């Protein structure tokens, strides 16, 4: 059977961008605390910025934008610190990114860069938005600029390493994670990225070791289970592979390729009914998934359902699966 490729989704949740927000500490009772600060010092911009962060953390973005606007106006009117205004620009950018208003996010990151061009945070966060908008050159330029300004900036290593992972530059991803781990050897997310890169390179044992460390820290991260499951499958550890892919699906990895990969493992174990269900689920989730049709065709042929196999191979061929095209030409 044909192994489907599973890629880690790129930073949609903007984890790295969120990690840069060390500018203003937000207390547990953050809305109450910063609301009290604003009430007592209504002309100080920092309180509005922090209260905006508190509302943004609750998903109340309209309120956050209102407070950020007040903070920016006060910084400009009172001639406050450039660093403080920079922070508000960054927080605005992050809030717009979180509601997927990427154009507005870029505007605020551009303002931050213009205000303080030698601080790395805005470049890193802007690079994430460029990556989300499928602008790889701009994304890589920003990540690299961020690291040039601060070679110890872990967030930028994380972002660029993840970018390399998702663009197939696995060696570069590994090198970035090695550099970052020298600086922060106990960061499990760095092991997660490096582990996924090792799996993509076919260095499965190294991948399993790194991903196990990442999973220990992040036991609900489905992508780690998917990639470790792939490594277990490649090394013949089918029970472990089945366990990981099943866990990934339970955790919400509802993508077609994960079902295809688990179906393949079921097929290797002679569990045809279970394999068929997974291939059909993959096709249901993604009707243009060539691997789903190809593997279902392979299973149908093995079960003697030749007409169904021919139909599946024909469909897979139309979707670009060359092995399926060869099967059709050979009459199955």
Based on the model shown, name its key terms.
332 residues, mainly alpha, Serine Threonine Protein Phosphatase 5, Tetratricopeptide repeat, 19 helices, 0% strand, disordered N terminus
How far is the N terminus from the C terminus? 14 Å
What's the order of the H and E elements? HHHHHHHHHHHHHHHHHHH
Mean pLDDT equals 90
Calculate Rg over CA atoms.
24 Å
In CATH terms, the superfamily of the domain at 1-150 is: Tetratricopeptide repeat domain
What structural category characterises the helix and strand content?
A: mainly alpha
Q: Got a strand count? A: 0
Spans of at least 5 consecutive residues whose pLDDT stays below 50 are 1-28
Helix content: over 70%
CATH level-1 class of the domain at 1-150:
Mainly Alpha
**Helix count, DSSP H or I runs of 4 or more residues:** 19
Proportion of residues in extended strands: under 5%
Architecture of the domain at 1-150, according to CATH? Alpha Horseshoe
Oligomer: single chain
Q: CATH fold name of the domain at 1-150, please?
A: Serine Threonine Protein Phosphatase 5, Tetratricopeptide repeat
Q: Give the overall shape, derived from the CA principal axes.
A: elongated
Largest sheet descriptor: none
């Amino acid at each position: 059977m044909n192994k489907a490729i599973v890629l880690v989704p790129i930073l949609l949740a903007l984890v790295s961008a969120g990690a840069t927000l060390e500018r203003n500490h937000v207390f547990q009772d953050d809305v109450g605390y910063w609301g009290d600060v604003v009430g007592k010092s209504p002309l100080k911009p920092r309180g509005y910025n922090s209260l905006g962060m508190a509302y943004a953390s609750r998903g109340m973005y309209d309120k956050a934008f209102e407070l950020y606007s007040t903070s920016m106006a006060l910084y400009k009117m009172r001639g406050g610190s450039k660093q403080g205004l920079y922070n508000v620009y960054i927080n605005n950018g992050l809030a717009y990114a979180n509601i997927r208003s990427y154009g507005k996010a870029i505007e605020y990151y551009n303002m931050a860069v213009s205000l303080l061009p030698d601080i790395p945070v805005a470049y890193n966060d802007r690079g994430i938005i460029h990556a989300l908008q499928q602008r790889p050159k701009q994304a890589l330029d920003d990540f690299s600029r961020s690291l040039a300004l601060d070679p110890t900036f872990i967030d930028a290593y994380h972002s660029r390493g993840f970018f390399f992972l998702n663009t197939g530059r696995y060696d570069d991803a590994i090198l970035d994670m090695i550099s970052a781990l020298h600086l922060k050897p106990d960061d499990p997310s760095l092991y997660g990225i490096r582990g996924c890169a090792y799996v993509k390179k076919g260095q499965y044992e190294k991948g399993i070791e790194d991903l196990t460390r990442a999973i220990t820290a992040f036991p609900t991260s489905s992508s780690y289970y998917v990639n470790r499951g792939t490594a277990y499958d490649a090394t013949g550890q089918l029970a472990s592979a089945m366990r990981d892919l099943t866990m990934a699906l339970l955790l919400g990895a509802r993508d077609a390729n994960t079902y295809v990969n688990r179906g393949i493992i079921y097929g290797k174990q002679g569990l045809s009914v279970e394999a068929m269900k997974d291939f059909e689920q993959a096709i249901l989730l993604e009707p243009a998934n060539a691997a789903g049709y190809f593997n279902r065709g392979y299973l149908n042929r093995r079960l003697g359902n030749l007409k169904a196999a021919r139909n599946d191979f024909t469909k897979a061929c139309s979707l670009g699966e060359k092995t399926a095209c060869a099967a059709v030409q050979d009459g199955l």
